[in-house]
Design goal:
Elements: H1 12-15, E1 23-27, H2 33-41, E2 46-50, H3 54-66, E3 72-75, H4 79-86, E4 92-98, H5 116-125, E5 126-136, H6 139-150, E6 155-158, H7 170-177, E7 183-189
This protein binds S-adenosylmethionine.
S-adenosylmethionine (SAM) binds near residues 52, 100, 171 and 172.
Length: about 190
């Protein structure tokens, strides 16, 4: 999708015309295998991928067209800008952050996505009972992220039961084949007055 104005909050109807359908957002959707599998499984929901690399965006679009999906869109844009400035308030039921770049070198840690501003933006764009789902193979990044998320008072840590359909992503497949451990976390927007 191409926003009509990159410098204003997007109207909900511009994201998807059926604004009553739950919207799930995949931040850094890569080649889109997860997003496409979810959009196929849940036609009653809408899915938005955000990805900065053009080649990957094109791959998602190709897969979406091959599957004639009308409930999937991809936005080619920087993640922090997208969630902090572009997406409308309370537009999403779930936000997925799956295997974000861990930026392992200390001098690059400031490029890591999960920080307090990120958490504030999450809570602004999630619905009242919205969820944030996070996976990584990088233990040190996971611990740092958990520390930030635990200290953020507007999100509650909840168990990630495996009863839900949750497709394996391309990067998850790579790391699992290499025998790496996968770290997961699921948070829910704290109930008002709690
Ligand atoms: C390690 S890959 C994971 C892709 C996919 N989620 C998966 O699990 O297979 C991280 C993805 O996030 C994208 N990405 C990283 N930082 C980004 C940013 N600041 N804005 C937009 N996309 C970003 C990268 O281009 C890449 O496709």
């Amino acid at each position: 999708m191409v926003p009509s104005d990159y410098f204003k909050k997007l109207p909900k109807e511009e994201l998807f015309t059926e604004i009553d359908k739950p919207l799930e957002i995949d931040l850094g959707c890569g080649d889109g295998s997860f997003l496409v599998a979810m959009a196929l499984k849940y036609p009653e929901k809408n899915f938005l991928g955000v990805e900065r690399l053009l080649g990957r965006v094109r791959k998602v679009l190709r897969k979406s067209e091959e599957n004639s999906l009308s409930n999937l869109k991809v936005l080619r844009l920087e993640l922090s800008y997208t969630i902090e400035w572009l997406l409308p308030d309370h537009c999403a039921s779930r936000i997925h952050l799956l295997f974000p770049d861990p930026w392992p070198k200390k001098k690059h840690h400031k490029r890591r996505l999960i920080n307090e501003s990120f958490c504030e933006a999450l809570v602004k764009i999630l619905n009242q009972d919205g969820e944030f789902l996070f996976k990584t193979d990088h233990e040190e990044y996971f611990e740092e992220s958990m520390n930030t998320l635990q200290n953020f008072s507007l999100l509650d840590h909840i168990p990630w039961d495996n009863e839900d359909y949750y497709p394996v992503t391309d990067f998850e497949r790579i790391w699992t084949n290499e025998g790496k451990e996968i770290f997961t976390a699921r948070y829910k927007v704290k109930a008002q007055g709690a």
